[in-house]
Predict the 3D structure of the following.
Amino acid sequence: MIGIIDYGLGNLGSIKNMLKVIGEKSVISSDAEELDKCNKLILPGVGSFDAGMSKLNDSKLADYIKTVTEKEKKPILGICLGMQLLGKSSEEGILPGLGLIPFCSKRFQIEDKRLKVPHMGWDIVKIEKDIPLTHNLLDKRQRYYFVHSYHAVCESQENVLMTCDYGYDFAAAVVKDNVMGVQFHPEKSHSFGMALLTNFVEM
Amino acid sequence: MYNRPRIIPVLLVDDRDLIKTKQFNERTYLGDPVNAVKIFNIKGVDELSILDIGVTKNHKEPDFQLLSDIASEAFMPLSYGGGINNIEQVRKLLAIGYEKVVMNTALFEKPELIREAVRLYGSQSIVASIDAKKTASGYECMIEDGGRKTGVTPVDMAKKALELGVGEIIINSIDNDGMMQGYDIELVRSIADSVDIPVTAIGGAGGIDDLKKVLDEGHAHAAAGGSMFVFYGRLRAVLITAPREEELIKKGIYDSEG
């Protein structure tokens, strides 16, 4: 059972739909007790960094996420803004992030004027680490749907799980132990996204 | 750098029927929209757009049940347009699995709704759709499914949409709709060259060469179509279809993933 954290921002329905096709039960909830019954969590999110953090802080979900991921080592997957919230901070806002992985989110600074921000559309990634979330994805090109203006800049290369080239290489996915985040939308990335979420379900 | 402009089938819905129009008029009944979405999902299309042309006309709410049924079959980016006139409808659409909400009549009637939606959900969630018709002196924007004149040119409208904060513009040629004779390249380019956000072209696509042309010469960032995804052959037999990945790579529309 996967708990999809509902803090008022994000594409919750799509994630639930894809988990259903994979054959995994999920619950969309903002209630810590209900989320606690789940063995894994997904932190979705669409919108601005401070809007997301203030909703997590106000609902006490921020404390809950920090506790269960740090003490109980519950696996969590952040998606899009949900990934950025796992970091320490973002140029988009002034509030501190959850700080579970040492990275900051920075706005794209691209010299090539033909490349628009947001980075929107399908892009291919390079998988940098072989972990349970990626282990059977390495032998074939993976392609995912992205929509974002900010991207993670990791303090240490060891937290970079995937990279993508848009004007320059940026971290398309990050990891630190049981805490994982993807900048793209697996729930909107056809069979590629389904393979990744299946790995998350099965790990 | 991998380049893959989005190729987007647009499905027109009216009262739960999948249909296709010609020049916003003459229509063909095509079948069940959910069924079509299932096929596009299997084909792995880049993105899908659902436009309900019955909602504004009949002053109804968007058909959220149908839209949920569609979203549960579509594991690709989805947009919806048709009759959006309050923020709760925007919230609901995003919650049931639509990434983007397409605004047309609201650009004129309710600009404050667009501003509010952009503030709450980000510019990437809100798309302005501009329906343009040729006139003796140039082009004019139409609203209410092409039924009402506005006296505004598409370029001015695009600039206004940009100011309201939308993240993308769809430029639709009413004259070329359903004709399958190619896009109005001049119209598309005039919009793409006057804004710095992605522009999606629609209206006139008959085949893969038209897609290539509007991306290269029309400077569009994405190419959408109706008829070419639902009709097959000169006799316009109904067939839900999409160009194959290899064809698009061969034409130089997509980069090879190599």
